[in-house]
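Chapter review: from sequence to fold.
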Amino acid sequence: MEKKLQIDFGKISIGDSWNAFVLEADTVADIDSLVNKRKSFCVEHKINFQPILVVFGADISHLQFAVASDKILYVLQFSRIFRLKSKISDFSTK
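The token string follows.
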């Protein structure tokens, strides 16, 4: 009989799962400490650090986006952002 490898990742909360998808920062200067906290969390839970979306800005009208990888921060620049629909419910298919 083949023995299966079992790894205990512990219990990861919904909040932790959300933080695995996106980091929120007020300024670009805050990003480094947030990424380091995320890396520590990954080490503690024995999971790999994956590239993560970072959203930062003073308010919703001045948001900027970046992707943090293991050692590099890629700041994304958009020349135009289009508003496609006014409400999420407008996307429903009927």
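Two observations follow directly from the output. The chain has one domain: 14-91. The longest strand covers residues 52-56.
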